[in-house]
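Help wanted!
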Amino acid sequence: NAGVTQTPKFQVLKTGQSMTLQCAQDMNHNSMYWYRQDPGMGLRLIYYSASEGTTDKGEVPNGYNVSRLNKREFSLRLESAAPSQTSVYFCASSATPSWARATEAFFGQGTRLTVV
Amino acid sequence: TQLLEQSPQFLSIQEGENLTVYCNSSSVFSSLQWYRQEPGEGPVLLVTVVTGGEVKKLKRLTFQFGDARKDSSLHITAAQPGDTGLYLCAGLIPDSNYQLIWGAGTKLIIKP
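Answered by r_m:
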């Protein structure tokens, strides 16, 4: 029962480096999300994809880009990493967009990213 | 900025005690969810409440949605070490494109 799989689990980057966080779900969900979690701030939405072929900005999109590669996969790219992007990143998926109705979001295990 | 405030931020109690954590906002929510997150893992949904005044029970956990749908509480009876974790509430703002608004969480430690 894989659910939502994120890679890598840990990453250390130098300021200015780029990287892509990978996410895949095997639940045939339409909607996928990228969040960051920082101490004392809760989860903040970076980007989401309501359905295959669409992506939209969330609360904190600056410095990030996303690609919904197909229904299963949704990647997050940091083009030029900054120390302010040090965080734990979570990918999530849900059957339907959560603004349409109360729906359960399934989360991956997270990627702990440190930018030095 | 829509805020969802959780209290307390941290709670450490002995096994067998009861506790209540709160989730409050000035905004009205279409629904509110409670998640539990364990170290190194992503949040896992515990319950969704939709109707003002709604009460849901999950074994020793009782969830209540405020009558005005602006707040919620989670009450745990006879807490056990397995209840240890970070409890997060998330509210769905009507007509919002930002999906869920998340609280910062209550870190709960139950000591044997």
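OP: Thanks! One thing I noticed: The interface with chain A takes residues 4, 9, 30-31, 33, 40-45, 48, 50, 88, 90, 92, 95-100, 102-105 of chain B (CB under 8 Å).
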